[in-house]
Write a structure and sequence with these properties.
By secondary structure, this protein is of the alpha/beta class. Helices cover 42% and strands 23% of the residues. The radius of gyration is 33 Å and the shape is rod-shaped. GO terms for molecular function: DNA binding; DNA-binding transcription factor activity.
């Protein structure tokens, strides 16, 4: 039994007239009669009682009509869902993001995307840049909001913006008397920075900038999260750096100052695996670019 048999049967059952049903189906009446006889033979049931004047459903036909309608409805729903999925209108998308992304453009991107594609389920996980690259390569996330550059040719990038860093001091630090801080003025400070494995490019860039200023930084702690780094700064253990978008989260016991002469800037980009051809990903990247360009 095929689905076109069910459609033919339902049309005749609803019209109770082979001629009208044939017109509705855009086939000839003899062809429709042949299809119904073929269906009845396959089922071993008489679905219609026929006379020269009228067509009626048998009891078996009435029961079969209810089930046939359900099957056709389910088949149509499955087809529509498949088409929506192929168009990228429904499905799942997993996002990775850094803390600074969540404080900048990412919330607006997610809000606009959810408005346009409400049937797409989004999952979001905070990860450092290096962990996001590994998640992309392992196909555990579809799109990552991270800080390039990176060394994997399989990861594609769409830049979304960049920002400066600020220095974070304990609230009683004497350098806070300055409006802007030169990196050279920090030569004798103790530094609390992120571990190299979390962002080797940015880590190395920091040491290169200090070398240009004529000193090697004294790193006293390498700490994973910016919240913990800020806590150690408040405790008087040293100074750290934050993207300017995060300075509002610095909290009590510390103060931030912009850097006067440091060339380091934090770039934010959307990243994805080059093999990921999901139409949902394509829609998301289109939204991300449009929002970032506003």
């Amino acid at each position: 039994m095929e689905f076109h048999h069910l459609r033919y049967f339902v049309a005749v059952a609803e019209e109770l007239h082979f001629g009208r049903a044939a017109q509705r189906l855009h086939i000839t009446q003899p062809a429709l009669s042949k299809q119904i006889r073929s269906l009845e033979a396959e089922l071993g049931l008489q679905l219609f009682s026929r006379t020269q004047r009228r067509v009626q459903l048998t009891r078996a036909g009435l029961v079969f009509l209810e089930q046939a309608r359900q099957l056709l409805h389910q088949a149509d729903a499955a087809l529509q869902l498949a088409r929506r999925t192929a168009r990228g209108e429904t499905g799942q998308l997993s996002l990775g993001f850094t803390a600074s992304a969540l404080q900048s453009v990412l919330p607006r991107i997610v809000r606009v995307f959810r408005e346009r594609y409400p049937a797409v389920e989004l999952s979001m996980t905070e990860l450092c840049t290096e962990d996001q690259v590994e998640a992309l390569l392992g196909h555990r996330v579809d799109v990552a909001f991270l800080h390039p550059p990176m060394r994997s040719p399989a990861v594609q990038l769409q830049p979304l913006g960049e920002e400066n860093f600020v220095a974070v001091f304990a609230e009683d630090h004497p350098l806070l008397a300055c409006g802007r801080i030169s990196l050279r003025a920090l030569a004798d400070e103790a530094f609390i920075i992120h571990p190299r494995q979390e962002g080797p490019v940015l880590y190395d860039q920091f040491f290169e900038l200090c070398a240009r200023m004529g000193f090697r930084p004294k790193v006293v702690r390498e700490v994973t999260t910016h919240q913990n780094r800020i806590g150690l700064v408040a405790a008087g253990m040293g100074i750290t750096f934050l993207p300017e978008s995060l300075q509002g989260q610095a909290g009590a016991g510390v103060a931030c100052r912009p850097l006067a002469d440091a060339a380091a800037r934090l770039v934010l980009a959307a990243a994805w695996h080059q093999d990921n051809t999901s139409p949902i990903l394509g829609h998301f990247l289109t939204v991300a670019k449009a929002v970032a360009d506003l």
